[in-house]
Write a structure and sequence with these properties.
The protein has helices spanning 9-37, 41-53, 61-74, 78-89, 111-115, 132-135, 138-144, 162-175, 183-190, 194-220. By secondary structure, the chain is mainly α. It folds into 2 domains: 9-53, no CATH class; 61-218, Lysozyme. Helix 2 crosses helix 10. The longest helix is centred in the N-terminal third of the chain and has 29 residues, at 9-37. The protein is elongated and about 90 Å long. The N and C termini lie far apart (70 Å). One of its GO terms (molecular function) is peptidoglycan lytic transglycosylase activity.
Length: 222
Amino acid sequence: MKKQKGISYKTKGWMIVLLLPITITIYILAIIGWQQLVKIPVVQEWAEIINSSTAKLDVPTEYIELYKKAEDNYGVPWTLLAAHHRIETRFSTMDPLLSPAGAEGHLQFMPCTFVGWSHPSCGGLGKGDIPEKDKISPAIIEQYGGYGVDANNDGKADPYDLEDAIFSAANYLAASGAADGEIEKAVFNYNHSEKYVEDVLHFYHLYESQVKNLQAAAYSSQ
């Protein structure tokens, strides 16, 4: 009985060479087919539900209520406040909450922005030479037109108090146009850096998307 010969290595090599273009073509057609398929409304809903079921909001839950309270007061999207908080101090995990340039607190305010640029010591980058007691005085802040807010009514507007800092950021962003939908302009006004704007908007859009997906998942489960 003769022993059957297997396919030679040379033949296998030619088979791979011949099949490779076919495989690549099928792969490309599959991608194009999916791109066309996802344009169908029913398929879009199906894909969104799948994405929503695994959605997770990457914001510490203990801060969300404060963001939403500030949104109610100033009309600034709470997801934008969360994005600023993330970029400025990594949700207050930066230690200390003081930058080399002199920005202070949970949302990194320059003292002159917090207290007011009309303060006689203010100029340059805004570090100023403001007495510590005046930095947290609502009366002094009102006098010099600053953005610091006493959100918890304890008699102090303190950038190192989380609630005060979030409300102050919302106040500043609202005055810069965020409450009227001018998000990019407001973010740039907060920090005159294109990279900063890009980073904040990245997280803002991410959180907006995650919230939408979570809402869709909750709705689909009803």
